Amino acid sequence: MASQTRTVRSGASGDAHRTSHGSANARKTSTGPAGARRNHRAPKNKKDPKRKHKGLWWKILLGVIGGIIVLGIALFAYLYATTDIPQPEKIALAEKTTVYYNDGTTPIGSFSEQNREIVNCATLPDYVGNAIVASEDRSFWTNKGIDITGMARALYNNLTKGTRQGGSTITQQYAERYYLGETTSYSGKIREAILAMKIANSQDKSEVLCNYMNTIYLGRGAYGIQAAAQAYFGKDAKDLTPSEAAMIAGIIPAPSTWDPAVNPKQAEKRFDRVVGIMKDDGYLTAQQAADAKFPEVKEYVPSNDYAGPTGYILSTVETELTNNKAFTKDELETGGYKVITTLDKTMQDRIQQVGDERPEGMPETLQIGGIAVDQSSGSVRAMYAGQDYLKQQLNNATQSTFQPGSTMKPFGLIGAAQDDVSFSTLFNGNSPERFETTPGTFAEVPNALGISWGTINLNQATANSVNTVFMNVNEHLTPKRYAQIAHDAGITGDIQEDTLYNILGINSLTVWDLAQGHSTIANNGTKNTLHLVDRVTKADKDMYKANPEPKKVFDENVCALTQHAMLGTTTYGTAAGVSSQLGRPVAGKSGTANDETAASFVGYTPQLMNVWAIWNPGENGENLVVPSFAGYGVSSTGYPAHLFSEFMSTAVADMPVEQFPTAVDNGKIGGPDGDWGLGGSRAPSTNQGQNTVTPSESPSESASQSASPTQNASPSQTANDKPTSEPQQPAQPTPEPTQPAQPTTEPTPPAQPTQPDTQPTTEPQQQSGQ
User: Fold this and answer.
1) Distance CA 435, CA 478 (A)
2) Other C-beta atoms lying within 10 Å of the C-beta of residue 286
3) Gap between the Cα atoms of 732 and 725, Å rounded
4) How does 11-38 read in b/e, with b if 16+ C-beta sit within 10 Å?
5) What percent of the chain is predicted at pLDDT more than 90?
6) What is the CATH number assigned to the segment(s) 114-291?
C-alpha cells in the first residue's frame, strides 16, 4: 500500500484526487498500466518543469547575443562617426631606420634614402593600376573598402596557425600604412577597417588606387610607382609595359626579398600569377597575356649610404636582425627604428685605418679581414670587412673564408686538459713524423720549414706551433672529438671528422667564426654569441634587445691552461715581441694555410680580442700563395700579427693592465694512462704533483727537456736521442718587423724561423674561397 501511495502521488494532481475518491479497483490498478496511462493523459495545461527551464536558457542566450549585437552596432556607429580621414598631405610617410654607434647618438648610416615622386595617375596606362588590383585585391572595384570573407579567413588562420595574415583590401592597406601606421593588433585592425570603409564611401575608387600607388613601398628604396619604375627599369611609370607593371605588382607583399635580383624564382612565380589574374579578370586579352614575358630588371646600385665601409656595417646589422626573425627587411627599411650597435667609434675608425693601409709590395689582390670583440659579452667593438662596399659587397669579416691553419691548435689543448694531461708532458717535436692521417692512410707530416724541435712540452709546442706534436695530440683525442670541441666553443663552419689534419686548420672559416670559437676560451669557458646589435628602439620604446645566450661549455682552469700556453706565442714564439710592444700579457696564436695561401693571427688580453687574416684569391676564385712583401717573411705570416699590434696598441691604451687567471696544472705526465707523448716514465718526478702556473712565469718549465731546433733534420732523429748537454731553451727568434726601416730591402733572416705554422704539403689544397 505504501508503494501504491508513492505512485499515486507521483501522478498528476487531478488523477490523484479522482483515485482517492474512486473504487477499490481503481486504487488497485494505480500502479499498473492504467496508472501509467493516467499519467500520460495528464491535463495539457500542466507544463513539464524541465521544458520550462530549457526554454528559459534559450531566451537568456538570445538576449545576450542580441545585447552584444546592439552594443557592437552602437560601438561601430560611434567609431565610424568619430573617425576622421586625414588629408592626403598629412599622410604619415615611411621613416628611415638609422643605425648608431654604441653611444646611441653618433649615427653610422641609414638603411635607405626615401625615394618618392608623386605622379598624376591619369597619365598612367590602365593596366598599371589593374596589375596592382590583380595582385592585391581582385574585388577592389566593387567592394566597400573591406573584405569580410578575407578578414574572417585571416582571423581563423591567425588563431589556429599563429600566422600574421591581414586579409586586407587595397583600401585597408592604404589606411593601415599611411594613415594609421603599421597595425598588427586586433584593435588596430578594427580601426583600420572602419577607416577603410569611410574612405571607400567618401573617395572615388580611382583616387584611392592612385594614392595607394603613389605611396606604397616597392623595394630598392622606392616609394610609389614612379620611383619603382626608375629603380627597376630606368623609365617613367607612364612608359611601363604590361609585363613590367605585372612584375612590380607581384612583389608588393615582400618587395625587398622578392626583388628579381634577390629571388628570381619567386619574382617570376608572382609575375605569372598576376598575368593570369589580369587575363581572367579582363584587364589583358588572351593574346596580351600570352605575349607577356618576365622583364629584365636593371642592376641595383645601393644608395650612397652604403659607400665605403659603412655598407658593410649596415648590411651586417640588417642580416643579424632578419636572421634572428626580429624584423623583416622591409620593416627595417621603412619602420623608422633606432638601431644601436655594439661598435665603438674610436675602435672602428682605427681598425678601418689599420686594415686600409697597403704597404709597399702588397699585392692588390690581397684581401684582409679583421674583428675586435669584447669576449666577456660577445659584443663586436670593431670590424674590418673591406674598403668599399659599393666596389666589393662580400664582407671579409663575416662572409669570406680562408684556411685558419694553426690558429685552430688551441682547441686541441682544450681536449688535452679535459683528458687530465699535464702540459709538462714531453712530446717528440722532430720533423717529419709518420701518422695514420686517415684510416688506412699513412703520411710523413713535417713541421714548418722542416724544423725538428726535439723533445718539448705542450707549452713550447704551442708557442712554436709544432705540427708533429699536435698531430700526436689529435691521435689521442680523435678527429671527431676535436671537431666537437671546436663546435662546442662556438665555431659553426664545417670541420672534417675523418682526418688528423683537422687540428692543423685545413677547413675554411670566416674571421667572425674563428673569433667566436676563441672568444669562448678567452672568456674562461663561457660562450657568448657574437653580435653587432645591442638594441633597437622606436619612440623611446625597446623593440629588441640582444641576447648573447651565455653558456658555460669549458672549465675555467682548462681555459687558463690554454691561455697560458698561448702566452708563449707572443713572448718567445711565432709572434715574439707582441706582448712587450703592448706592455701587457697577450695570449696569441698565429696560423698559415696549406700551401701558404692565407695567414692569420688570433690574440687577446683579458679585456679585448682581436683577429686578423689575409688571403690571396685569384681572378677565378682560386687560392694563390701570399708572397713576401714590405719585409714580412715567408708567406708574410708576420703581417697579421703586425695588424694586431697596430690596432691593439691604441685600442687597449687606456685599459688597465690585467693578468690572465692563474692556471693550475694538476694533470698527469703522459696522461691518465701514461701513453700521451713520450709517456709518464720520461717525466721527472717533480712534475707528478700539482703545478701552479702563473702568467708571469717564464714560458719554459725547468723540468722540460728542449732541444735546439734544427732544420732539415733526418727523419730518423727521434725524441729518444737525448741531448749530451744541459737542455737549452730554443733560440729566441727576432720579432717580425712592425715598421721595416727599408721596406724595399729584405730583412736579415731571424735566428729562429718565424713561420712554424705551414701545413703539410701532402694534404690536398683546400679552397678557402673569396
Assistant:
1) 13
2) 8
3) 19
4) beeebbeebeeeeeeebebbeeeebeeb
5) 60
6) 1.10.3810.10
Distances (CA, A) of 258 to 41, 255, 308, 317: 78, 5, 26, 20
DSSP state of 496: -
Q: How far apart are CA 565 and CA 473, in angstroms?
A: 15
> How far is the CA of 644 from the CAs of 448, 559, 611, in angstroms?
22, 22, 7
Q: What is the mean pLDDT of residues 22-51?
A: 46
Kindly report, residue by residue over 702-749, the tens digit of the pLDDT.
Answer: 333 344 565 543 333 333 333 322 333 333 333 333 333 333 333 333
Helices 264-280 and 126-136 pack at an angle, to 10 degrees, of 110
CATH of 401-652 among 2.70.98.10, 3.40.50.300, 3.40.50.720, 3.40.710.10: 3.40.710.10
What ranges do the domains of the chain cover?
114-291, 401-652
From 273-282, 516-525, 724-733, the region with the lowest mean pLDDT: 724-733
The lowest-confidence range among 164-168, 220-224, 576-580, 650-654 is 164-168
Tens-digit pLDDT profile for residues 343-364:
999 999 999 999 999 999 999 9
Burial of 272 (0-12, 13-18, 19+ CB in 10 A): middle
Strand 598-604 to 609-615 pairing = antiparallel
Nearest Cα residue to 309 out of 397, 378, 375? 397
Which grid cell is 157?
588562420
* Residue 396 and residue 501 in contact, taking contact as beta carbons nearer than 8 Å: no
For the chain, give percent helix, strand, coil, nearest 5: 40, 15, 45
| 345: exposed, middle or buried (Cβ count in 10 Å: 0-12, 13-18, 19+) | middle
| CB count in 10 Å sphere of residue 542 | 9
Cell of 53: 527551464
